[in-house]
Here is the input.
Amino acid sequence: KSKNEVTIKDAQEAQTAVEQALVVLKDFYSKAGGATAFVQQGAAPKAPEIFDEPYKGMSGESGGVVGMLEVIESDFARLEADTKAAEATAQKEYDSFMTDSKVDKAAKTKDIEHKETKKQEQSKTLVVKKEDLEANQKELDAAVAYYDKLKPSCVDASVSFEDRVARREEEIKSLQEALQVLNGEDLP
Here is the structure.
């Protein structure tokens, strides 16, 4: 921004200087028509037709010093206008960017707050779940210990399968005999 301000100031000063130079040159060329300082006088031979009027400079031509200065003046005016337009465009883009950035920052701040709250809730849930896991593990350990304690009395590992089958059949036979006796039937 400061570089643009310096450029605009320089362009304005240059325009002023060129305008002043143009005024001086135009004044000089307007007076040059009547000046006779360089006109030859005296008993000189007849001058050719070319020099029959005093020198007025190149003020009538489209080029020359005056034309060049006018082009320079227009260049400085264009530079000033372009720089002002570029500065205005840059300022507008900057303002737009800052507005968008503020909106984006506000949205991201809200998102961070939401995520922090969610993180705290998840941390609390994790603590509760760990406590439940520990309690359930203690209960499981106690149940496994009780199972291990009861297992030997429920399953006699020293008796083979055939012996157990034979005992079971013997028990079934004795239960059937008891049923017959209760029903009043004779035993075989």
The helical segments are 2-32, 64-154, 161-183. The mean pLDDT is 81.
